Every structure is written in C-alpha cells, then in structure tokens.
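Hi V.,

You were right to ask for the full record rather than a summary. Here it is.
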Amino acid sequence: MTHSVTARGAEVFGGLVAPLAVLGSESSGSELFRFLRERIRDRSTDPVAVSTVFVPDEFGDYNVLIGLPYSSPSDVPVGDVFLQVPSGVFAKFVPSGNLRDPIDDVWAQVDEATESGTLFRAYKEDVEVVTQSGEVELFVSVVI
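Predicted structure:
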C-alpha cells in the first residue's frame, strides 16, 4: 500500500449521474459505471480520461457524477449535470499490482490505509480517474 498526499485545486466536472451509489470498487467497477464511462468517451474523438466523483450527502449516502473536468460551468454540455469539487488535500492512490483489477486495487489500498490508521478520511468528494487504457488514479479527501 502506497499513497502520496497532494493538494488539488477546485475543479468543475460535468457528466452523467448515478444516484445512491456505494462508495468503493463495488460501484466503481460495476457494469453501470463502465457503461456510463463509455457513454462519456463516445462523445469525444480523442481518448479521454473519465472522472468518477463520489459526492456524500447529509445522510451518509453517495451520489456519483461520471464525466469530465471543464474550465467553467458554461463549458459543460447542455443536459449534463455539473458540480464543483473544492480545493483540498487528497491522498492519491495508484494500483500496486496486488489485485488484477486496478479499480479494486486502489479501493482496497484505501480500505487498508483507513483500517490501519495511516489515513484519516474527510468523507468529502473523492475523485477516481480512469484513462482509456484502463489506468487508474484515486484521490481520496483526507484530514491532515
């Protein structure tokens, strides 16, 4: 398990919504999320890295936006939902190779780091980025 701590600036994301998702690889690796990522990729002639933004609500549930980063809300395609992830401190995880599926790998590392007390999650927005070739980066909001 390895991760680095990094600051991320505020970003606007626009895309498609999956309400009431389970946080982690169970949802992120699901057929629904794979389908939504492909719909976002189909919109572009260039290979794009699709972001999955997990957004907690006041009840502890997560809603998810699967889409792309944009410079401003006015750049988001008509009909898509947009949100702004505020700037903050994040733990960045990349696959370690311990598990075959890179999405399972990064979320398993988060679970291990949280359970061991190495990482204190803020339970705010988490951002998972999946490239066209299947590379994964996961940014988990943390308390420092």
